[in-house]
From TrEMBL:
Belongs to the methylthioribose kinase family. One of its GO terms (molecular function) is S-methyl-5-thioribose kinase activity. GO terms for biological process: methionine biosynthetic process. Gene3D superfamilies: 3.90.1200.10, Phosphorylase Kinase, domain 1. The keyword Transit peptide does not apply. Pfam families: APH. This is S-methyl-5-thioribose kinase. Keywords: ATP-binding, Kinase, Nucleotide-binding, Transferase. It comes from Streptomyces olivochromogenes. Residues 27-278 form the Aminoglycoside phosphotransferase domain.
Length: 386
């Protein structure tokens, strides 16, 4: 059967057809929240079982049919989950099946967990484990799918299989060029008019963003999540133990490792700007350091297992230094686009007055882009935050 868009009333039958559900009638509700897809939660009436169904639509969900987008992005997501399952299965939801005809994933019900951004927006903190696990996640996925973790020919096949031009183009446009141009996707609070104009007419900033854009287009270092923001992470506790789950890797492709770290850092820094604006005490400003330390430690732990020992220890030091610098640049670009480009963050938009925190974040974003080579440690970034 060909592709059909699933509605709430179709879900129980669909799951039965595919052998995921028995004859009992579950409760089904649509909980679509991200920019791109539809998600349904399916729960047994006695609450003993649950599943989630995620389907890619032939357009960007928040824009509607006026912004067509191939649902094949779900193939990229399914492929990414397969790769992560090999190296970090504890950090992603369990995948029960992928239906490539309908671009639908059937996966673990995570409704007992909460989206990290929601927790932060409600005044919560990251806690001691979240950023450590995110740093480990990026290291485990990127090491395993780099030329250090995979034989050369296998890697070339992964690069070919993971090519995702449509989704990469979104990032090349909305993150890595449009905010620095006049574009209909861009919008911002009127209190930021002067900065939006200044960012569009800043040759140094533009050249540095061009550098990052080119790196994103050409730097095939490892398989990425591709959209690692705090809305793509769920956290909580199960049987007394902390749980962190990374989801939504539909933007996955083989790209520069710093893009994943940078996106996460941008979102932690924006959450810090929100906390600061509200006078909330928290651990937001520590997360870049915690995730970087965990990433670096895990990458170094895996290094002795590399498949190509021509890459020596001195090269590793250089490589990690480059990842650090590139991550800062991508973090800056993500901050800027989330404020004067497309797809703004509720961290800022829901503030009583978003302008002061947005201005600080924008200026921080610019610093991270243009001065990334001078910032050599997390303490340098923390100093910028102060
Ligand atoms: C058209 S999509 C806009 C944004 O939503 C996704 O979550 C990505 O961040 C993308 O840039
Ligand atoms: Mg997403």
């Amino acid at each position: 059967m060909g592709y059909r868009i699933l509605e709430t009333e179709d879900i129980a039958g669909y799951l039965r057809e595919r052998g995921h559900w028995g004859t009992d009638e579950p409760e089904v509700r649509e909980v679509s929240d991200g920019n791109m897809n539809r998600v349904f939660l399916v729960t047994a009436t006695d609450r003993t079982r649950g599943l989630a169904v995620k389907q890619a639509l032939p357009w960007v969900r928040v824009a509607g049919p006026s912004w067509p987008m191939s649902p094949e992005r779900a193939d990229a997501e399914a492929r990414a989950y397969e790769q992560v399952a090999k190296v970090a299965p504890d950090k992603i939801p369990a995948i029960h099946g992928y239906d490539s005809d309908n671009y639908a994933l059937v996966m673990e019900d995570m409704s007992d967990l909460e989206v990290l951004r929601t927790i932060l927006n409600e005044g919560g903190t990251y806690g001691p484990d979240t950023s450590r696990r995110i740093g480990e996640f990026v290291a485990q996925l990127s090491f395993a799918t780099s030329d250090f973790g995979m034989p050369s020919a296998e890697r070339k096949a992964l690069i070919a299989a993971s090519v995702s031009p449509e989704l990469c183009k979104i990032t090349e446009d909305v993150v890595l060029s449009e905010p620095y141009l006049e574009h209909e996707h861009n919008h911002w609070h009127p209190g930021l008019d002067d900065l939006a104009v200044a960012f569009r007419s800043d040759p140094r900033l533009r050249t540095e963003v061009a550098e990052l854009r080119h790196l994103f287009m050409t730097g095939a270092q490892a398989l990425l999540h591709g959209d690692l923001h705090t809305g793509s992470i769920m956290v909580g506790t199960r049987e007394g133990a902390p749980v962190v789950r990374v989801f939504d890797p539909e933007f996955s492709f083989v790209g520069p490792i710093g893009f994943d770290l940078g996106l996460y850092w941008a979102n932690t820094l924006v959450s810090a700007a929100r906390a600061d604006a509200l006078g909330v005490e928290g651990d937001h400003g520590d997360q870049l350091r915690l995730s970087w330390d965990a990433f670096r430690a895990e990458f170094r732990r895996l290094w002795p297992t590399r498949v190509d020992t021509f890459f020596d220890d001195a090269f590793l030091d250089r490589f990690l230094d480059r990842v650090w610098t590139e991550s800062l640049g991508f973090a800056g670009a993500e901050i800027v686009r989330r404020i004067i480009g497309f797809a703004h963050l509720t961290d800022l938009t829901t503030l009583p007055d978003p302008v002061p925190a947005s201005r600080r974040a924008l200026l921080l974003g610019r610093e991270l882009i243009v001065r990334r080579a001078e910032l050599t440690s997390p303490e340098d970034v923390e100093a910028l935050l102060r």
